[in-house]
Design a protein that fits this description.
- By secondary structure, the chain is an alpha+beta fold.
- The chain has a single domain, classed as Glutaredoxin (3-Layer(aba) Sandwich).
- Helices cover 37% and strands 21% of the residues.
- It is built from 2 helices and 4 strands.
- A 4-stranded mixed sheet has the order 2-1-3-4, covered by helices on one side.
- Strand 1, helix 1 and strand 2 form a beta-alpha-beta unit.
- It is globular and about 35 Å long.
- The structure holds FE2/S2 (inorganic) cluster.
- FE2/S2 (inorganic) cluster (FES) binds next to helix 1.
- The site of FE2/S2 (inorganic) cluster has 12 residues, from helix 1.
């Protein structure tokens, strides 16, 4: 079966990076490895998308999350990419 991967696109522009996405990226990578989701998920970075004031931003599939606090990222991942 060729299930389409879920795409997580995290903004690596300087504002989002400094506001929390450096930490969020680490947490996402660790979560994917720990939960064995690497195969189902394509994890990628994007350049600044001009929404810095609302950052740190990331997209999962069609959904955009703004102001993502590192404390909330695991709950978001579980919601979007959890389950089997
Ligand atoms: S740095 Fe992320 S939107 Fe600008």
């Amino acid at each position: 079966m060729n299930e389409k991967p879920i795409v997580i696109a995290i903004c690596m522009g300087s504002s989002c990076y400094a506001r929390g996405n450096a930490r969020n990226a680490e947490i996402i990578q660790r979560w994917l490895a720990r939960e064995g989701r690497d195969a189902r998920v394509e994890f990628t970075g994007t350049l600044c998308e001009g929404l810095c004031k609302e950052g740190p931003n990331l997209r999962i599939g069609e959904k955009t999350y703004r102001g993502v606090d590192p404390a909330a990222i695991e709950d978001i991942l579980e919601y979007e990419c959890g389950g089997s």
